[in-house]
Automatic annotation (TrEMBL):
It comes from Tsuneonella dongtanensis. The keyword RNA-binding does not apply. CDD domains: MMCE. GO terms for biological process: L-methylmalonyl-CoA metabolic process. The keyword Metal-binding applies. Belongs to the methylmalonyl-CoA epimerase family. Residues 5-140 form the VOC domain. NCBIfam families: metmalonyl_epim. The lineage of its organism: Bacteria, Pseudomonadati, Pseudomonadota, Alphaproteobacteria, Sphingomonadales. This is Glyoxalase-like domain protein. InterPro entries: Glyas_Bleomycin-R_OHBP_Dase, MeMalonyl-CoA_epimerase, MMCE/EMCE_epimerase, VOC_core. Keywords: Metal-binding. GO terms for molecular function: metal ion binding; methylmalonyl-CoA epimerase activity.
C-alpha cells in the first residue's frame, strides 16, 4: 500500500466568503467553486485552486465552514477563531485496501468510510497517529482529479 498525491489542504474558516476574497485578492486564485453544503459532515465546502506555473492550477485548498453548532468544526474554530489548517488529504486507488492497511498498522480511524466533497469515499486518521496532523484519505476520483 502506498499513498498517492496530496489532493488538497483543508482549511477551516468562520466565513467562506471572506476566505474566498483573501484567496482571490492576496493569492491570485481564479478557479473557485461555488460553496455547497455537506450536511452529513456538518460543513459547507468550497474549493480554491491556487495559481501554478504557466497558467496551471497549483495546490487545491478546501475551505470548510461549520453548518451549525453541532459541526465537528465548531470546536476547532473555538480554539482557532480565525480558522486555520485543518487537515491534509491524500489519494489512494482503493479506499477499502487503504483502510485495511492503516488498521493493520494500528492507526486509529475516525468514523466510518463515507462520501466526501469530491464525491468519492473518504475516511480520517487520528492526528496522534499521523505526526499531529488530521489526515483524510480519499479514493482517487475516476477520470481525473
Amino acid at each position: 500500500m502506498k499513498l498517492g498525491r496530496l489532493n488538497h489542504i483543508g482549511v477551516a474558516t468562520p466565513s467562506i466568503p471572506e476566505s474566498v476574497a483573501y484567496y482571490r485578492e492576496v493569492m491570485g486564485a481564479t478557479s473557485i467553486t461555488e460553496p455547497f453544503d455537506l450536511p452529513e459532515q456538518g460543513v459547507k465546502v468550497c474549493f480554491v485552486d491556487t495559481p501554478g506555473e504557466n497558467g496551471t492550477n497549483g495546490t487545491q485548498i478546501e475551505l470548510i465552514e461549520p453548518l451549525g453548532p453541532d459541526s465537528t468544526l465548531t470546536g476547532f474554530l473555538a480554539k482557532n477563531p480565525a480558522g486555520g489548517q485543518h487537515h491534509l488529504c491524500y489519494e489512494v486507488p482503493d479506499i477499502a485496501e487503504a483502510r485495511a492497511w492503516f488498521e493493520g498498522l494500528g492507526k486509529r480511524i475516525l468514523g466510518p468510510t463515507r462520501i466526501g466533497a469530491h464525491g468519492t469515499p473518504i475516511f480520517f486518521l487520528h492526528p496522534k497517529d499521523m505526526m499531529g496532523q488530521l489526515t483524510e484519505i480519499m479514493e482517487s476520483p475516476r477520470g481525473g482529479h
